[in-house]
Amino acid sequence: MSEKKKKIEKRRKDADLFKVVDSTIDPRTYLLLQDIARKLRIDYYLGAISSGKEAKVYPAKTYDGNFYAVKIYYVSTSASKKAIQKYTFGDKRFENIKASNTKKLISIWARKEFKNLSILYESGVNVPKPILVQEHILVMNFIGENGVRAPLLKELPDEEITKDMYEEILSQIDLMVNKAKLVHGDLSEYNIIVYDKIYIIDVSQSISIESENAPELLRRDIENINRFFESKGIEVNDTEEILKRFNII
Ligand code: ATP
Ligand code: MN
Checking DSSP bridges between strand 55-62 and strand 50-51, what pairing results, if any? Predict the structure, then answer.
C-alpha cells in the first residue's frame, strides 16, 4: 500500500472507531481508545450501555466478532475522589501510592478494579475476565450477546428470581471472602449480572478481608442481598448465621 493510501485508510479507521459519537470522550481518552483498539484488534466501539456515578461502559467489537466491555472512569469528579480516599485508606496494597491529583487517583482506581478482578477471576469467582487496564480505562470480557448486555439482577422479572439464585450468590460471597480474601463492599442487585450464571461486577471498591472496615462492609453486602430477595418473597438466611458460616466474624 502506498503511503498516501495508508494515510487515507488510517483516517477512515479513526472515524469509524466509534459507531455512536460520544461528545464526552476527551482527546486523551480518544487516543487511549485508539491505542487499545490496536492492541486488542478492536474494530469499533458501540454507544455507552451505562453512565454511572464513576464511569461509563461501552461494548467494543473485535475483528473476530467478540465483544469486550470497556469501562472508562470519569477523569474528574469529586465523588470519585472522595470514594477513592475512603476506600483505599488503610488498604496495604495501595499504601505506597501518593497520588497528588485526581487524574492519578482515577488511574489508581481503575488499576485497583483491575487487580481485584484478577484476584477474583483467579480464585474462581464469577466475574468478567479482566483483559487490560490503561490509565483510566479498563477492558474486560463482555457479559451478554452481540453487544447487548445481559440484565442486572435488579432488572429481572420477579418470576425469574429464585432461591437457587440466592444460594448461588451466597456461595460466590463465600468464595470471595474465603478464597480471594476480598470483601466486595458495594454488593447489591445493581452489581450482579444474570446470564448463563450470575456475575459479580463493579469491584473497584473491594477491599482485603484484613482491612479494618471489612466486617462492616461484608455485613452490609449480605444485608443488601437479603433485603432484595426478601422483597421478592424468597426466604433468606439470617445475616449473622451467614457471617458465622463464612467463618470470618
Ligand atoms: P453505576 O454507578 O451505574 O453502578 P459503575 O460506575 O458503578 O456504574 P459498573 O457497575 O461496573 O460501573 O458498570 C455499569 C454498568 O455497565 C453495569 O450496571 C452493567 O449494566 C454494565 N456492565 C459493566 N460491566 C459489564 C460487563 N463486563 N459486561 C456487560 N455489561 C457490563
Ligand atoms: Mn455499579
Answer: antiparallel
Residue 221's pLDDT band, with cuts at 50, 70 and 90, is very high
Cα(6) to centroid(ligand 1), Å: 37
Kindly state if the Cβ of 144 falls inside 6 Å of ligand 1: yes
**Average of pLDDT values for 29-36?**
95
| Structure confidence at residue 183 (pLDDT) | 97
Q: Does 46 sit in the ligand 1 pocket, CB within 6 Å? A: no
Whether residue 143 is found in the same domain as residue 174: no
Q: Examine residue 1 and state whether it is found in any structural domain, yes or no.
A: no
Tell me the catalytic residues.
186, 202
To test the pocket of ligand 1, the residue of 202, 203, 224 to mutate (highest count of ligand atoms within 8 Å of its CB) is 202
Report the mean per-residue pLDDT for the chain: 89
Q: Is the CB of 119 under 6 A from ligand 1?
A: no
Q: Is residue 2 part of a domain?
A: no
Range of the domain at 74: 7-148
- From ligand 2's centre to the CA of 55, what distance in Å? 9
Report pLDDT for 24: 75
